[in-house]
Amino acid sequence: MKPVMALVGRPNVGKSTLFNRLTKSRDAIVADFAGLTRDRHYGNARHGQHEFIVIDTGGFEPTAETGIYMEMAKQTRQAVAEADVVVFVVDARAGVSAQDHDIANFLRKLGKPTVLAANKAEGMQDSAHLAEFYELGLGEVEPVSASHGQGVRNLVEKALEPLNLPEEPEDGASEAETGVIKLAVAGRPNVGKSTLINTWLGEERLVAFDLPGTTRDAISVPFERNGQRFELIDTAGLRRKGKVFEAIEKFSVVKTLQAIESANVVLLLLDATQGVTDQDAHIAGYILESGRAVVLAINKWDAVDEYERETVRRQIEARLAFLKFADLHLISAKKRQGIGPLWGSIAQAYKAAFTKMTTPVLTRLLHEAVQFQQPKRSGMFRPKLRYAHQGGQNPPVIVVHGNSLEHVTDAYKRFLEGRFRKEFNLVGTPLRIEMRTSKNPYADKE
């Protein structure tokens, strides 16, 4: 699973700026629901071949006992508990404060790997002014400038060093050869994830046993159904002992994101009684961003009337339109209604994610699409699409080569996507199309 890095520090030291620098985007996932403040963000980051999750927290005041600062401190403590490594951000120009000492005392007692980052240190890399931060007792001080990017690379390298990450990234293609479908059940608290999991494990045709989780109490449950092996990556927390698997509906954004990253297929469970919320859209967006195959299921369908059902359908069309390639099922996990067809969609989504597409067929489809509808002209140039080949699996990637492809519109890419999806029956998986323009051999000659 992806390691987790938490950014902590007192207010206005530049944590959010550093977060945006690490994630290379301001479109971080916002966990906007009861118990978490809006200034707590989760995002993906990459350093070399290693990917990791970054948590941006609010201003941390460990001694706060009342008001919003106490709530922010509570959430920061939870972020630190979820993290593999903590980056303690201080203000290099303001110097050490009493609040910095309180935070340092809190982090030292935890004993979790911690890196001290002195932000706003433009031109201060060799300054004696940074020496005062050594009194915090957290080792070497890493001078950085989040706004300018100075020292950030060294900071990340030092933060990831104690985690002993593998040298080679996991190969998604090799997973297909094992024949085991890694399935994650994701969704908000109380949507029925636990009920659905327990219903699956209670079926007579399922063979299930416990397997201790790899990191931070994550638990996988291998089981077999009609000869197909699955590995359920649980986001709710299954009890390891006992005859009955009891799920703990204690929602953790980090564990859900890690489960999505580890899976081949994600079953996104929605609650018919609550409709499609912002949190559902955030989780769905992360699934799409991660490139995972997905199946949608609306639980508690038996508990709503026809008017509410129509409202939910419209919400899905409006808020989850970007997942229109996924199968949708109407179920009741408690009454075991509609859960049988889920398995067919899960298998189909997995198959689509690892579909192999030959270059001759892709190129033929590309030429047929161009003959049916050419891309729009941009000024004096009309993009020329010459040939296509497959560039990856899980999710499938199609690489199109030609000239002036930077002028191909998003609408035309969606048109091509529709043609490719129909030919290869790519139901349940995202499809990415990359445009690569051929280099003009005479461009550098006078």
TrEMBL record:
Function description: GTPase that plays an essential role in the late steps of ribosome biogenesis.
EngA-type G domain boundaries: 3-167, 181-354
Lineage: Bacteria, Pseudomonadati, Pseudomonadota, Betaproteobacteria, Burkholderiales
Name this protein carries in UniProt: GTPase Der
Sites where the protein binds GTP 1: 9-16, 56-60, 119-122
Family: Belongs to the TRAFAC class TrmE-Era-EngA-EngB-Septin-like GTPase superfamily. EngA (Der) GTPase family.
Subunit structure: Associates with the 50S ribosomal subunit.
Chain residues that bind GTP 2: 187-194, 234-238, 299-302
Annotated NCBIfam families: GTPase_EngA, small_GTP
Classification via InterPro entries: G_ENGA, GTP-bd, GTPase_Der, KH_dom-like, KH_dom-like_a/b, P-loop_NTPase, Small_GTP-bd
Pfam families documented for this protein: KH_dom-like, MMR_HSR1
